[in-house]
Amino acid sequence: MRALQECGGHLWVVFVDGEPALRFQSCHLRYCPRCSRVLAWKRAQLFEQRINEMKRPSFLTLTMRHNDMPLRDQIQRLSRCFGRLKRRAVWKQAVAGGFHVIEITRNKVSGQYHAHIHAVIDARYMPQDWLSEQWLRITGDSPIVHIRRARSEDSRYLAKYATKSGVELALDADDIWRNVDALRGLRLVGTFGNCRPLTDDGDIFPHQDQRDTLAMPIETLYDQARTDPIAYGYIQKLRARHPWLPDIPSP
Hints:
Blueprint: H1 2-6, E1 12-16, E2 19-23, H2 33-53, E3 57-63, H3 71-86, H4 89-94, E4 95-106, E5 113-123, H5 128-139, E6 145-149, H6 154-162, H7 173-183, E7 189-193, E8 212-217, H8 218-225, H9 229-241
Antiparallel strand pairs: 1-2, 1-8, 3-5, 3-6, 4-5, 4-7
Helix pairs in contact: 2-6, 3-5, 8-9
């Protein structure tokens, strides 16, 4: 909780070799509003990169029948079933690799959770009928699957699914922490086959650098940018790398 409270409390602008950069300590918690927005943006970039590396990207959705199982149990069952599907001989022959995201929705009336998998796979043609048959055999009750060619906008949707925190699933205030606790330690994103890991070269925000000079609070730079074209230019450079930063009118 303390890490969440202190996240982004001190956001600074520094200049590295004359160029503006951001510095601050992030909490990396899935349910942090600030970190989840930045993480969604970064993951969308990574997902798009991995899709572009595939020869024949297809978008696969695997659903589970609605039930009253606790959220954590549903996710663990879904992950086990997906693992069994990937061990099928036909799957191994057709699919070179890919990545998946577990999305969770909730019926606000019944309170039931619904966990399902979205995956982008680099694969030869796979009949939907075969996938449906295999998925029903594996799950015992869920034949609904869908497969189509992957589209460019899929990376943004997947990033949104991948950064759900559990907060948006809550029916009341007390329910928030039950959902957060249920998701704790679970992997909702993963790769398989020849797909490269979904990692990049750094933290959400880089930490202190030996070349950092002239640090100032970002609020100060924004104040200057309202009347100073040079400061405004620095804001635009920062926004090019961090689109979540607010824009302001040019001076």
